[in-house]
Amino acid sequence: MSLRIAFAASNAPIAQAARESLTRQYGDHNELGADVIVALGGDGFMLHTLHRTQSLSVPVYGMNRGTVGFLMNEYSDHGLVERLEAAEEAVINPLSMNAVTIDGTVHRELAINEVSLLRAGPQTARLRISVDGRLRMAELVCDGALVATPAGSTAYNYSAHGPILPIGSDVLALTAVAAFRPRRWRGALLPSTAEVRFEVLDPGKRPVMAEADARAVRDVVQVDIRSEPSIKHRVMFDPDHGLEERLIQEQFV
User: Fold this and answer.
1) Coil/strand/helix, residue 24
2) Which residues does the annotation say bind NAD(+) (predicted)?
């Protein structure tokens, strides 16, 4: 039986052209009945595709037709079936975010890369941090803070000088963004089972927004974050270029 491939592409002209070329060669199946979804774009579109198709339990194979492609394979319109049959699969568990705003509304989102809290005004944010119900930091004065998965540890987390995490490490990174007090505090490594709570101190004067993979919630007063093992994103990579290998490579550049 031939491999049933569903193609998805970002709105970028280069991605749309790639989709047109590939569907002419390999056909295009409905995602509901596909064996694999091929996503054409950058990392942002890959994250969008994984979120959109999380209920399908279909692996997603990305090819880079965007500006950033850490989660993507190199693009080629030749030998796709052979590449898919040889591809290795990584399973990613997202983070769940429960964010409470000043008016008491609760917003629930999932994040494959990270959940971040960022100041939304001219003054620094003041955050209180608890882990598994235990107060760990009474006050962090900063531009923000984030919790990242291993898959997301090379994204915003790495730009904020957080650690790169091996994909199978069962660890989360809690990283400060431009910490002012404690000035030298960079963050912490936590087990993947940890539940992290951020409380915003003085939210009226020092507003804070929360983001889960770029989906933003403004004026938060409390944000709870934990791993969501019941949700499994299946991502496919070419042999010797899997997510684990890429995470190692990033530490030597």
Assistant:
1) helix
2) 43-44, 48, 113-114, 143, 151, 154-159, 178
Any known ligand binding at 82? no
pLDDT, tens digit, 9 for 90 and up, residues 120-165:
999 999 999 999 999 999 999 999 999 999 989 988 999 999 999 9
Instruction: Write down the catalytic residue from 28, 35, 43, 219.
Output: 43
> Annotation-wise, does 93 bind a ligand?
no
- Residue 49's domain spans which residues? 5-92+232-250
| Residues 221, 245 within the same domain | no
pLDDT band at 216 (very low <50, low <70, confident <90, very high): very high
Are the C-beta atoms of residues 39 and 62 closer than 8 Å to each other?
yes
Residues 110, 221 within the same domain: yes
* 210 in a known ligand binding site: no
Rounded Cα–Cα distance for residues 130 and 179 (Å): 17
- The verdict on whether 224 is a catalytic residue reads no
Do both 35 and 142 map to the same domain?
no
Tell whether 207 and 156 lie within a shared domain: yes
How much of the chain is helix, strand and coil, in % rounded to 5? 20, 40, 40
DSSP 103: T
Q: What CATH number does the domain containing 239 carry?
A: 3.40.50.10330
As for how many domains the chain has, the answer is 2
Task: Look at residue 252 in the predicted model and tell me its pLDDT.
Answer: 77
How much is the pLDDT for 15? 97
- Residues 209 and 140 both lie in one domain: yes
